[in-house]
Amino acid sequence: MKKIFKKVFIASMLLATSLMAELQHVWSTPAFMKKDIKIIDIRTPQEWKETGIVKGSYTIMFFDEEGNFNVENFMRQLNMVVKKDEPFALICRVGSRTGMVSEFLSNKLGYKVINLKGGIMKAIYEGYRTVKYP
Known about the structure:
By secondary structure, this protein is of the alpha/beta class. It has six helices and five strands; from the N terminus they run αβαβαβαβαβα. The chain has a single domain, classed as Rhodanese-like domain (Oxidized Rhodanese, domain 1, 3-Layer(aba) Sandwich).
């Protein structure tokens, strides 16, 4: 009986956590870049230099050039920029990395995340002008 109760309790906690999480998938467009929402660019410094960045965005690398990551370091930097209950957007080159990271942040940690599908490349293709990364 204890094992069944424990399993039901854990399942209900996981369900409650996923219900509280908010994840949106939105196309990366010049119009979105003008919204009053924080944008976190999770690409690498080389990528920031190559294409530029969204004006006013926060550059917090998640994956390095070899695909390695340091969740603790990323979370420390992210929590200096956004509050857990504050909606924010993630952007990368084409949207594949932000897809993974936004799922993790939303479903596992309960953040309110907007995944910018198509990434910086889609926004640039649609006419968005980036600013130079310092």
